[in-house]
Amino acid sequence: MPHDTPLMAVTGTTLVLAAPPPADSAARHRPRAGAAAPVEAPARRSAAARALGPYARLFAVPGARGFTAGNLLARLPMGMFGISAVMMIAGQRGSYALAGAVTATGMAATALVGPWTARLVDRYGQARTAVPATVIAVLGSLCLVLCVRTQAPAWTLFASYAATATTPNIGGMSRARWTHLLPRSAHHTAMSFEQAADELCFMLGPVLAALLCTALFPEAGTLTGAALLLTGMLVFTAHRATEPPPGGAPKAGGGRSPLRALLPLLGLFTATGLVFGSMEVTSVAHLSALGLGAASGPVLALQAAGSCVAGLLYGAGRARSLRTCLAALAGAMALPWAAAATGSLVPLALALLLAGMSTAPVMVTAMGLVQSRTPEGRLNEGMTLAVTAILAGIAAGSATAGLAVDRLGTTTAYALPAAAALTALLIGSATSRPGR
Fold first, then answer.
1. Do 308 and 300 contact (CB within 8 A), yes or no?
2. At what angle do helices 220-238 and 64-75 cross, to 10 degrees?
């Protein structure tokens, strides 16, 4: 197998170890008998390959495009459900406090149920576990709509939304497929793509949800999200050839828990969640204080867009050490604090764009460490534990930022994400292995 292309020479390798993609590529482009091969064609193909980067070779893997399409469909509702529930409940019941309490309960339930669902995925397989778990979650969403619409007691809203906690971690399952299909040298690019997909869906999801709830009817966001989740999961799990084999029940004396292996990293993910949660709440409050509340959505979308683009660029280049990425994050998170002091929108928007670009390399590199440290056969559970830690950090960051905004003002509150990023740097420096 040729190795003249650094890092991504064998990205196209799939479950079959023989017959590497370069050979297939040569066969596909071999001139017909008697036909003259154009002299400039190889140069044009080389330039196109460089322009597309390693992602073109990534999706040359058989089945990759199909399961990725399902992955994106099922992942988009992750950015829709929260804001859809808030707008639906607040619109029908007239209480944002109730809406916030219901969504917070759902997040807490997800933190408890998510790792357990992921463990079942690892043990019994993605299709066998994810489809029924998704059906339960969709039924929970439909029940929530029904309870809100019929003015059912408030406790039914909490119970219905808690049922959606069975939603499988589609991002973790997709990362597990890439890990199964690709050689280790290609994992950096695959994880970068997944991080960019996360940012894209969390950027577009709230916008789509808000549009549906306001332009159609309050329940439209939740109903559309449920339909997309079920459809995407069915498409994703239909591609069985790319699914990692189930690990089965742990052997006696084996099956080391991912929690023990990942415990040092979970503090890092919690601190990173603190950055996300505190930055979002502080930015919304600051823009509202400036009389620019309508700009909150586009400005936050700009931050997510920066992270999405940075993730793709990072995947096309060389991986950096976790310490280097965290140092860049700590520096970038000080920029919004300084920009907020100007009282102007443009410097703040630019600072948030740069801050967003610094988050993707951290997440990609940290998820790579999760992948390498998770015991064999427990990858979905390990990824879900990392996501749970991030969600816990987001919840804590949002609550802390709210208190800081009320007591210290919106400009000073921007010190919270900067402090959380510095904390992440200190934790990451202690937990990352040398040379990574």
1. no
2. 160
